Automatic annotation (TrEMBL):
SUPFAM superfamilies: F1F0 ATP synthase subunit A. CDD domains: ATP-synt_Fo_a_6 (cd00310). Key component of the proton channel; it plays a direct role in the translocation of protons across the membrane. This is ATP synthase subunit a. GO terms for cellular component: plasma membrane; proton-transporting ATP synthase complex. It is a multi-pass membrane protein. It is found in: Cell membrane; Membrane. It comes from Vagococcus coleopterorum. Belongs to the ATPase A chain family. The chain crosses the membrane at residues 15-36, 77-99, 119-137, 185-205, 211-236. The gene is atpB. One of its GO terms (biological process) is proton motive force-driven plasma membrane ATP synthesis. Its main location: membrane. NCBIfam families: ATP_synt_6_or_A (TIGR01131), PRK05815.1-4 (NF004479).
Length: 244
């Protein structure tokens, strides 16, 4: 049966309430995690503070590898927030699955990874590209930004560089969506099709198979969060670093 999201029509516009709820849940989880780990900070960190500082250092290393050293502090918080949001979003769909069948026999999904929806990933990618251009204008001014971003190293490459802005949105967003969506689809097939297909034997065999795929999906989810932040900082470096 086809699985659909919970759609609500407001003033003639359709809103995917499943995605909206999962995005809000992701934000709430991140806020709670950071607030819990950052309470009672100490000069000699232990336990939960170590976890938070490890993530901060990890993201800082990503930025340091792609941005000029003087720019790292300016964009560290952006990279940290983006990494945590994508990481948690990638993991949510692995926790459980909530679906209810309506009168038409359609399964309405009330729980999934926000990043398993192309609108979410493409919106994130669009925000990244817009922010990189904004930071470029803020640093060099409109004329300097345009010359640095599109007229270097040769003006005849300008159409190609302008086209890259659009292709970067597609590649950044669809890469994340494709990996997370494919993982959730396979988990659904294992749990709803393979496991019950041959009775108890297939159910028992399906449990370790699903656990293995969940572990692999966790790994892929972490890698995709890393790749998204890395590519975002690469695009950002092209805008805030002078081309020579």
């Amino acid at each position: 049966m086809e699985e659909k999201s919970w759609i609500v029509n407001i003033a003639g516009l359709d809103f995917d309430m499943t995605v909206c709820m999962m995005v809000l849940l992701t934000c709430a989880l991140i806020f709670g995690f950071v607030m819990y780990c950052s309470r009672n900070l100490q000069l000699k960190p232990t336990g939960k503070q170590n976890v938070l500082e490890a993530i901060i250092d990890f993201v800082r290393n990503i930025l340091s590898s792609n941005l000029p050293s003087k720019e790292v502090n300016n964009f560290h918080l952006l990279g940290f927030t983006m990494f945590l949001f994508i990481l948690v979003s990638n993991m949510l769909g692995l926790i459980t699955k909530i679906g209810i069948h309506n009168s038409l026999g359609e399964e309405i999904s009330y729980w999934k990874s926000p990043t398993a929806d192309p609108l979410v990933t493409l919106t994130l990618a669009t925000m990244v590209i817009l922010l990189t251009n904004y930071f470029g204008v803020r640093k060099f001014g409109l004329k300097g930004y345009f010359n640095n971003s599109f007229a270097q190293p040769a003006k005849f490459l300008m159409p190609v560089k302008i086209m890259e802005e659009f292709t970067n949105v597609l590649t950044l967003g669809l890469r994340l969506y494709g990996n997370i969506y494919a993982g959730e689809v396979l988990l659904t097939l294992i749990s709803s099709k393979l496991a019950p297909s041959f009775g108890a034997a297939s159910f028992i065999a399906g449990i370790p198979l699903e656990m293995i795929w969940i572990g692999f999906s966790i790994f892929i989810g972490g890698i995709q969060a890393y790749v998204f932040v890395t590519l975002s900082t690469v695009y950002l470096s092209h805008k805030v670093e002078s081309e020579h």
